[in-house]
Amino acid sequence: MKRWILWIIITLVLLVVYAPARALYWVQLPAGISLNQVSGSLWNGSAGQLKVNQQWFYDVSWSLSPTQLLAGRVALQLNVPATENDIAGQGELTYSTAGLKLNELEVAGQLAPLLALTDVAMPIETRGNWQLTLKEYQLQLPLEQRWCEQLTGSAEGQNIEVLVNNQWLSLGEFPLQLGCSEQGAIKLAMAGNNSLGLNFNGTIDSNDVSISGTVRPNPRTPEGLAEMFTYLGQADSQGRYRFSI
Q1: How many Å apart are CA 43 and CA 25, to the nearest integer?
Q2: DSSP 186-200
Q3: Where are the domains of the chain?
Q4: pLDDT 10s digits, 74-97
Q5: What family does the Swiss-Prot or TrEMBL record give for this protein (predicted)?
Q6: What is the DSSP letter of 76?
Q7: In the beta sheet, which residues pair with residue 152?
Q8: What pTM does this model have?
Q9: For residues 196 and 171, what is the distance between their CA atoms, to the nearest angstrom?
Q10: Among 163, 216, 222, residue whose Cα is nearest residue 193
Q11: Which stretches of the chain are DSSP H helices?
């Protein structure tokens, strides 16, 4: 009897290993997600086109870890190459009864596609690049009140420029630290060592995005942009303009 059970388990594993990736066409994917030009196997496969909302990704590849699967976890190594992709990256996603975990995730791209994907509108026209590095990010599923159990990571806006009076003004880099709050929200923190003196703390959870901080003109602040800070109100005794979202 035990031998038959073992053979059944081996057969099921082999079916998964050698099942063609085209089997994904039979799976009902979440709304806004579609796959085209799928090849390989479910174990090691690729998709020529992946659409998430209105953003296209090309030549996406993945691989599953057999040792993790035997341990009751689904570990997916995902790669989106920089060639022909506005947003590219790689990392490992692990799913188990404990929740979802991301390890060694590196994602980067241009700012405009990211703003379109997240449906974020900037107050003035902005362009540049960005990079997200997550050494570890863990959350429980389904998402309810807590979006963050453990998070070690950072993000950075790179070569940021804004359009003021029909002229592109260079702002440089904006590093951001990421973590978890005690309430299970994603915690954001930016120090003021940038061209706008932008300093803020914030949280993101299932209900709200909350950010409060200050901007403070400094010698690196473009003159045309420094004049716009007055719309935030009166500066304090240290020349800082406060804001909150």
Answers
A1: 15
A2: EEEEE-S-STT--EE
A3: 2-244
A4: 888 999 999 889 899 999 988 888
A5: Belongs to the GSP N family.
A6: E
A7: 136
A8: 0.81
A9: 8
A10: 216
A11: 2-18, 66-70, 111-118, 223-226
